[in-house]
């Protein structure tokens, strides 16, 4: 019987301790229209899943005929009611979109935010103008939701709005705009933004491009020359995902750019595809180019890379020797054979550079170093003892003790 008294009785029954009573009450409320909306919204928080499912199904039936009642629930003081209303509105679908668009101008920030969230599910291109205005809302929470929603429901006409949002003063909003552009595969727009003079905007564009790992390589390489560290760091991330395609532009930057070190970081991250060009740089007279090769080759595990780095241990430039040693140290065990050979070379500076790498490798280098410490060559023995002492683990010190070299003075 569709009467106020019946609706009231069912409302009370929907709160009953018995699950079956609540479930049947919710099913019956689905035939009552507007009077059932509030108790059905409350039932969306019921502990029993079938009660929640039937409550939502009932709201989907009632909602289109009573949109104002559902929208009014967005203003309920009870947070649970507001959450339930947003869920029900989204479930009703596109029929609720006009009311949600109107709610975007509500004075309550929570209502505006929930309206934007609901439009993510039931909105279409008709909601884009209102959502565009919401990207300039005074509250960052609303702007963030609007940017994320536009990234889902808009097409090419939303690119300019999302591009503008990249400069939002709130970092979360700006990052969401970049990720939304990536989701729409608008990498060209982001590449253009890399030419923006504002560092934070450039950094956000580069960060978004790093997610997809592909973009206008030339624009990203240009970003490596930015005066902003954050922009260079994000560009490094993005270019590393571009792989071998980025190598020619990066090599050119190593040769001429003021931030050649950023280019070197990318080449190191790219790894094997960069090795042939790094081998060419290793033969150059330019200290800068040789130094870049010494750093970048650490990203490779190839025999060719290790051979070049071992050769660098004899370089006349101390900085390049140390760079090569650190690179070999980061390569680890595969570099041991080359390092042990260099430790036996007459070149004292090369031996010292090898020692730096072997210290970095640590325990895996200990057996070979103990063999060198047994050498009849006093200088080789001394160098090995120093490295083992600086490694300083129980294994290293016990080995020196067994050889009677633990307290050997340094020359």
Terminus-to-terminus distance: 105 Å
Q: How much beta, percentage-wise?
A: under 5%
Tell me the major beta sheet.
none
Series of secondary-structure elements, N-terminal to C-terminal:
HHHHHHHHHHHHHHHHHHHHHHHHHHH
* Number of alpha- plus pi-helical segments: 27
Helix content: 55-70%
Structural class by secondary-structure content: mainly alpha
Could you say which overall geometry the principal axes of the C-alpha atoms support?
elongated
Rounded mean pLDDT score = 81
Which runs of at least 5 residues are low in confidence (pLDDT < 50)?
none
Total number of beta strands: 0
> For the CA atoms, what is the radius of gyration?
33 Å
Structure in words:
This protein is mostly helical and 411 residues long. Helices cover 68% and strands 0% of the residues. The protein is built from 27 helices and no strands. Helix 20 (287-296) packs parallel to helix 22 (318-331). The radius of gyration is 33 Å and the shape is elongated. The termini are far apart. The mean pLDDT is 81.
Task: Give the structure's gist in a few sentences.
It is built from 27 helices and no strands. With 411 residues, the chain is mainly alpha-helical.
What is this structure's SSE topology?
Elements: H1 4-13, H2 19-29, H3 37-43, H4 49-62, H5 67-72, H6 79-92, H7 97-103, H8 109-122, H9 128-134, H10 140-153, H11 159-165, H12 171-183, H13 187-193, H14 199-212, H15 217-223, H16 229-240, H17 247-256, H18 260-270, H19 275-282, H20 287-296, H21 303-312, H22 318-331, H23 336-343, H24 348-361, H25 366-373, H26 378-391, H27 394-402
Helix pairs in contact: 1-2, 2-4, 3-4, 4-6, 6-8, 7-8, 8-10, 9-10, 10-12, 11-12, 12-14, 13-14, 14-16, 15-16, 16-18, 17-18, 18-20, 19-20, 20-22, 21-22, 22-24, 23-24, 24-26, 25-26, 25-27
């Amino acid at each position: 019987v569709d009467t106020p008294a019946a609706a009231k009785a069912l409302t009370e029954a929907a709160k009953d301790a018995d699950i079956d009573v609540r479930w049947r009450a919710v099913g019956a409320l689905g035939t009552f229209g507007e009077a059932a909306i509030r108790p059905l919204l409350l039932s969306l928080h019921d502990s029993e899943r079938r009660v929640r499912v039937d409550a939502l199904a009932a709201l989907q039936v009632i909602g289109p005929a009573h949109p104002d009642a559902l929208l009014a629930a967005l203003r309920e003081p009870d947070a649970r009611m507001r959450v339930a209303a947003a869920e029900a509105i989204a479930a009703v679908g596109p029929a609720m979109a006009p009311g949600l668009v109107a709610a975007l101008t509500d004075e309550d920030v929570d209502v505006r935010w929930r309206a934007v969230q609901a439009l993510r599910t039931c909105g279409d291109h008709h909601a884009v103008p209102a959502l565009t205005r919401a990207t300039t809302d005074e509250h960052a929470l609303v702007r963030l939701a609007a940017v994320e929603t536009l990234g889902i429901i808009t097409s090419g006409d939303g690119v300019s709005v999302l591009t503008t949002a990249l400069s939002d003063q709130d970092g979360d909003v700006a990052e969401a705009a970049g990720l939304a552009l990536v989701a729409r595969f608008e990498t060209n727009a982001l590449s253009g933004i890399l030419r923006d003079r504002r560092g934070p905007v450039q950094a956000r564009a580069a960060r978004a491009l790093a997610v997809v790992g592909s973009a206008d390589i030339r624009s990203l390489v240009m970003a490596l020359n930015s005066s902003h560290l954050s922009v260079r760091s994000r560009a490094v991330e993005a270019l590393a995902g571009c792989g071998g395609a980025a190598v020619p532009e990066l090599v050119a930057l190593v040769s001429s750019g003021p931030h050649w070190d950023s280019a070197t970081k990318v080449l190191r991250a790219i790894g094997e595809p960069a090795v042939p060009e790094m081998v060419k740089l290793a033969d150059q007279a330019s200290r800068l180019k040789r130094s870049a090769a010494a750093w970048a080759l650490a990203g490779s595990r190839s025999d060719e890379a290790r051979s070049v780095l071992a050769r660098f241990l004899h370089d006349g430039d101390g900085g390049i020797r140390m760079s090569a040693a650190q690179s070999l140290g980061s390569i680890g065990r595969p570099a041991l054979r080359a390092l042990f050979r260099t430790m036996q070379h007459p070149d004292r500076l090369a031996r010292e550079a090898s020692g730096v790498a072997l210290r970095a490798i640590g325990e895996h280098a200990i057996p070979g170093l103990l063999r060198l410490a047994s050498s009849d060559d006093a200088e080789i023995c001394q160098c090995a003892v120093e490295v083992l002492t600086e490694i300083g683990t129980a294994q290293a010190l016990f080995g020196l003790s067994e050889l009677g070299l633990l307290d050997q003075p340094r020359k």
